[in-house]
Amino acid sequence: MTRSQMEEQVVYAEGMRALTRARVPFLVGGGWALFHYLGRWRTTKDIDVFVRPEDVDRVLVALDRAGFRTELTDAAWLAKGWRRGALIDIIFCSYNGLFPVDDSWFDNARPAQVLGVPVQVVGPEEIIVSKSFVAARDRFDGGDVSWLLRATARQLDWNRVEELMRDHWQVLLWQLLHFLYVFPGLRALVPREVMDRLLARLSLELGSQAPSSLLCRGPMLDPKLYKREIDATGEDPRPRRDLIAGE
Hints:
By secondary structure, this protein is of the alpha+beta class. The chain folds into 2 domains: about 1-120, Beta Polymerase, domain 2 (2-Layer Sandwich), CATH 3.30.460.40; about 125-235, no CATH class. It is built from 10 helices and 9 strands. A 5-stranded mixed beta sheet has the order 1-2-5-4-3. Strands 6-7 form a two-stranded antiparallel ribbon. Strand 6 (about 110-115) and strand 7 form a beta hairpin. Helix 1 (about 5-20) packs across helix 3, helix 5 (about 125-130) runs antiparallel to helix 6 (about 140-150) and helix 8 (about 170-180) crosses helix 9. The radius of gyration is 19 Å and the shape is globular. The protein starts with a helix and ends in a 14-residue tail after the last helix. The mean pLDDT is about 95.
């Protein structure tokens, strides 16, 4: 680990302690949560903390008082805090608007130690569902989904995964097929009833009449790549979702 990385980790720990002192509920996600579940490290440029939308202002105040420079980057899902070159991403919804952080995220969290700070990390179900939609031209998190399935599939609440996906079950099916391709010898980790249910839905959909709408759902995965389609049709499938009060 480089000196710069060690200094960044000190700042991350200071940020988490500031939130703990302010009694602002938060969850740790991203690469640090993956490390908790997978037991191996991957390089990350920041630390992700997940909070309820209604707690964002309290988070920013707590970090301001701890010497961070903060901003509300996007009122739909993201704020940031910087200190000595280290970045904390403050996430309160998935970028596509589907998954706002709510009480159920905290109910499903797991206790952990991150950089010596007692915290809770995002549950594997929420990580899998949110990462399933990170499939842009310049970033694909399907690998993270596959590794996480390999590590946690036997303990997953599969009903919660399907409930979180709601009408986007095709994305779940796609990610499970990706996992089965990557790890063909581990197919028993995916419950047969889940695959049967998803494949039955696919068969039913293929046998029904196609929707008359020309709506493109590509922006749910990559808003940049499909921006031309949004501009042409005027239809954006993402929930318009300014979650911060007053925005």
